[in-house]
Fold this protein.
Amino acid sequence: MDSNLLSLLKIPSVPENIHYWIIRTNGGDYYEDFTLHEYISISWDYVSLSILYTKDDDEIKRLIEVYEKMSTTPEDSDDESDGTTKGKITAILNKINRFVFEIDKGDIILIPSKNSDRIAIAEVIGDVYETENYVESYLQANPTTEIVPCPYRKRRKIKILKTITKGQMDIYLAKGFNSQHALSSMDEYAPYINRTIYGIYSKGNELHTTLHAGHPNGLTLKELVELSTKLEETASSIAQQCEIPFDSSQVEVKLNIHSPGLIELIGSLSGAGIVLSLLMFTVNNLINGGKLNISYKKDDQTGKTDFSVTSETPGISGNAQKNKRIELKEKEELLELVNKLDVKTPEVVAAILNGDKITPNMLVATQPVEQLPESSTTKSEENV
């Protein structure tokens, strides 16, 4: 199915070819420096970029062996070696090569503080480079600083997307922090990282979106079934109105029923994903109110469904005079349910519905937005 909905609603698209990494901060010492000045770095300065670009692996391994024998304080106390000197040397070279040759622009970096109390999530925005005398220059310019400047020379510029606490971390993502390597791949945790960064996004031919629901003790089975049933009924109703093929059995659901529960819905962009987008924006409009209405019209010749929106504020706009407005059936019952289960949707959804400016923080926000006052809830019933 072809539609303009994702671009109209500015739903982020995650490239399929990016990779995910975790880089350590020397026990948290360099966390503030990395995040405040938006860069990452790795040690073993004796292996310079010029050496990496001009020498083969055997030559570099011999260099590593010489320096590691001279070192009384290993720069990476935990490595990927087999316990032998040869294994340690290979492990060091592997980490350096990852940082210089494998990390690329657009990749996502997780940066933990001491004890992983805070985790900064960042995007790589620059090529690898080297810096000289950074510590001396920084301390000279900032003599009273409490930040511990990182002395490592090999660096990459990053852009901080989001910072979460250990308590906010996805329970499945937390497993990836067991490794203490200086630099490790986190590709196997990509789905959990993406849903931590983005409340709603597309990747490949799928749309992913999340709801947060539940009391301090989580959801009961009865509440989960009740919510799932109502969401399915609402999605089916929206699909029927828009004449979009929709089979709820093709919607994948991933659950993290903790406090609060996370419900991730995944559907193909060819049909179910469009319905899920409409469902998320409709539910948000019901919960938080909104100044934006979504309408649609279908071209009988091409089969294409075009969506448009109208807003009370400048910004997103569309000609909806000849379009049919999406109506939410049984909205009172759904409103009662989402209030009872404290259902929350991504902040970016609320912003788009209200015609507000979309900020970078909103695009990456996945934590539940605060419930608006009761007067806003009343308004939402009128606007859906």
